Amino acid sequence: MTQFLFVTDLDNTLVGNDHALARLNQHLSQHREEYGSCIVYATGRSPTLYRQLTTERLLLEPDILVPSVGTAIYFKGTETPDPEWISKLSQNWNREQVVAIAAHFADLQTQPPDEQTPFKASYFLAETVAAAVLPKLESALKQQGLDIQLVYSSGRDLDILPRQGNKGSATRFLQQRLNIPPERTVMCGDSGNDLSFFQQNQEARGIIVGNAQPELLEWHQANPSPNRYLAHSHCAAGILEGLLHFGFLSQPNPAAK
Ligand code: GLC
Ligand code: MG
Known about the structure:
Elements: E1 5-8, H1 18-35, E2 38-42, H2 47-56, E3 64-66, E4 74-75, H3 83-90, H4 95-102, E5 109-110, E6 121-124, H5 127-143, E7 148-153, E8 157-162, H6 167-178, E9 185-189, H7 195-200, E10 205-208, H8 214-222, E11 228-230, H9 235-245
Parallel strand pairs: 1-2, 1-9, 2-3, 9-10, 10-11
Antiparallel strand pairs: 3-4, 5-6, 6-8, 7-8
Helix pairs in contact: 1-9
């Protein structure tokens, strides 16, 4: 066993089955202690909603928190987001202009203020109209020269982000900063905002939990890769299944019980 970079989404990936979460936590904290493995939470939640979750569920303290769909990176012990990442995201990003254009789309409903961050403008958009609205919105934004990306998740959440910022690109940034190669990196997810993990890190190992959303499953089925594992089990139990599959963790020895 050796060190690895463990990057996981929270809602409906790490969190969703408390029993399995407790088991996975035990494996991960032991691995971190013995081999220095690094635990990263990459979530759509803002820091505020992340803190709320920590009061509701028993989560290990991560080494790095990547909130707001990859648009900020907090190393343990720091209260401010990593400045190098912020400066990458700032290039060609104009939040006011994004919001002004989005305001012309009546089907978009602005998410609560806590979920609006300097590099993320978030809305609710009904699944029934999403396929028609998203291409129009994207072209309206791009026509104004805005270098953005749209991330649609769970048939409900729309995030407009700088082109440089998502969970996948944040993970690549961390691999370089920590000097951990892709084959020692594993990323786990369940929905649209996790797609960039797998699209932008084809060499890294990916785990899709068994309860994943159709938007992620469809992409996975159309783009199969031996580096990506679709678990049978849900949430943390699916992560554990994947970590065993890739050999990041070893099967507990029954004789040792
Ligand atoms: C989380 C965030 C929300 C975002 C969604 C999808 O639910 O709170 O703002 O739209 O993730 O990324
Ligand atoms: Mg999720």
